[in-house]
Amino acid sequence: MVNKTQHSLLRTGLSLVIVGGWARTAQAGFADAIVAYEPGTGYATDWATGEGYLNETAALGMPSRVTVDPDPQYGGAFPVDPFGAPYLRSQIVSLGEGGELTVRLATPAINDPAHPYGIDFQIYGSAAFVIVNGDFTGGGVTDGSLFGATLGETRVAVSEDGTTFYELNPSLAPVVDALFPTDGMGDFGLAVDPSLAAADFDGQDLAGIRALYTGSAGGAGYDLAWALDREGNPVGIDAARFVRVSVLSGHAEIDGFATVPEASTGALFLLGLAGLLTGRRARRIGQGSENNPRNPADDTHHTAGHRA
Question: Which residues, 6+ apart, have CB-to-CB distance to 126 below 8 Å?
Answer without folding.
Answer: 85, 86, 87, 91, 92, 148, 177, 182, 253, 254, 255, 304, 307
